[in-house]
Design brief:
By secondary structure, the chain is an alpha/beta fold. It contains eight helices and eleven strands. The two termini are 21 Å apart.
Length: 250
């Protein structure tokens, strides 16, 4: 079975802290027939940065993922809010399946898959992008990331007294479209097609293609990871990276 897993946030130059050998988590992994290991990227595999272009895997974690993905009874998947192409560039590990844009697009066996109902909402996303660029023009520190299927408005570098105004603007743009929905993460606002797909449904999709007797494990740090934690219950194990008292993780 795989090495003991992390319970603490990652740093750029070191792998996560190791769970003690006697923990219930390690015992459950050691006795499982196989492991489906689901991992978030930003804040879990790589540290969160003000510039979303800079996070990358440390050499230690890249080596760890390579070791895990090469094991016969381990399947590694990375599920992120990043666009799939962006995520693929940051996970140069053979054998790892990916889900980008919070589960709206998947890479399975090397093939990109996007549901038709997501494609149908793309005109709404394009229209929202134009509106946000116009309405938020001049807001200090604002960054609008076009991820093709979704949009992310970053406020990490925006002065605190402007954030509520940004929230109201983004909410108004989304409310004007019946085809979009809004969610809030760590200093970001996510504009997405109004479809019932998320990190949880992505994890379930990967479970469907994994032996039923295998154990599902998911590690994440953000509010969007809660969907994955709930999706693998009650048999699976969710590990929240960092501090949060109201998480659905174990």
């Amino acid at each position: 079975m795989p090495p003991q897993w992390a319970m603490t946030p990652t740093e750029p130059s070191s792998p996560p802290g190791v769970v003690s050998e006697g923990s219930d988590l390690v015992k459950k992994i050691d006795t499982a027939d196989g492991l489906l290991a689901g991992l978030d990227f930003d804040g879990t595999l790589a540290p969160i940065r003000a510039d979303p272009e800079t996070p990358e895997l440390s050499p230690q974690l890249e080596e760890l993922l390579n070791r895990l993905a090469s094991q016969q009874h381990v399947r590694v998947v990375v599920i992120s809010g990043r666009a799939l192409a962006d995520l693929a560039d940051r996970i140069p590990v053979p054998g790892v399946d990916l889900a980008g844009n919070h589960g709206l697009e998947l890479r399975l066996d090397g093939e990109r898959r996007v549901p038709e109902r997501v494609e149908q909402r793309l005109p709404d996303v394009r229209e929202a992008l134009e509106s946000l660029r116009a309405d938020l023009d001049g807001v200090p520190g604002i960054r609008i990331e076009d991820k093709q299927l979704t949009l992310t408005v970053h406020v990490r570098e925006t002065p605190p007294n402007h954030v509520d105004g940004v929230r109201e603007t983004v909410s108004s743009v989304v409310a004007d479209s019946s085809g979009l929905t809004l969610s809030e993460g760590k200093q970001v606002f996510e504009v997405k097609p109004a479809v019932s797909l998320d990190k949880g449904t992505a994890m379930q999709r990967f479970e469907q293609q994994t032996p039923t007797e295998w154990l599902s494990l998911y590690l994440g740090d953000d509010t969007t990871d809660e969907d994955a934690f709930r999706a693998i219950q009650p048999e699976g194990i969710g590990v929240h990276v960092g501090e949060r008292s109201d998480s659905a993780a174990d």
